[in-house]
Amino acid sequence: MIPPSSDEDVSLAKIERAYDSPPWWYDVRGFFILTFAYRSTLWEQVRLFGNNIGPVHLEGAIGSGTLFGIILWWKRFTRKSIGSVVGFDYAEAMLAGAIRRFRGDTRIRLLKADVGSLDLPSSTFDTANVANAVHCFPDVDAGFRELFRVLKPGGTLAMNVLLYPRGAAPLRWIAERIDQWGMKKGILYTPYELDDIKRRICAAGFEIEWDDITGNTYNVRARKPR
């Protein structure tokens, strides 16, 4: 007899189906969500995530690799080098796009993985980024615990977290409609209240080193204590 699937298994399968689309469509859709739901900018993301890449780096939910590719270009432009990178994603179609994009770059290793159960050794990475993806985690607490586990003591995690729409109409109304569409489609598990996501980050063991809010986005860099 096949055991029944857990709620998390069902959610992961739904997410994988939702992201089973051509990488170019994912990028167009992502830009629309970034602009009108997150109400953030590409430059804000490049600065946040580009400044949190250490010698041994983990890029969580790398998707098609478009944003990380832009960050690598920015680092080359500013004459900043990177060391070794492990990137992972749960959706095979997205991961395939990243594999094509970074083919031949020996610094980058890509694998399929669930953030809530990473097959990676503890205390391995100097830094980790999760860009535009916390809203996809069916079990965000398990994800934060795993990211905490694989970071070295003193390592830092940078994330941007989608908050419930805030501010004045009509931008709030537009963001609400996009969130509702995303949850129905399966590309959005949930946005978060600010106090709730802060509590969850700290409950995983992190210390919040820096944070701010832009639009409907909570930008945060958290550190694993030494």
Verbal overview:
The protein is α/β, with parallel strands linked by helices. The protein has a single domain, classed as Rossmann fold. 42% of the residues lie in helices and 22% in strands. It contains 8 helices and 7 strands; from the N terminus they run H-H-H-E-H-E-H-E-E-H-E-H-H-E-E. It has a 7-stranded mixed sheet, sandwiched between helices. Helix 3 (42-50) crosses helix 4 (66-77). The N and C termini lie far apart (47 Å). Mean pLDDT is 86; it is low at 1-5.
List keywords for this structure.
8 helices, Rossmann fold, alpha/beta, 7-stranded mixed sheet, disordered N terminus, 226 residues
What can be said about this structure in brief?
The chain is of the alpha/beta class.
Give, in spatial order, the strands making up the sheet with the most strands. Answer: 3-2-1-4-5-7-6
The first-to-last residue Cα distance is 47 Å
What proportion of the residues form beta strands (DSSP E)?
A: 15-25%
Q: Specify the overall morphology.
A: globular
Which structural class best describes the helix and strand composition?
alpha/beta
Largest sheet: 7 strands, mixed
Mean pLDDT: 86
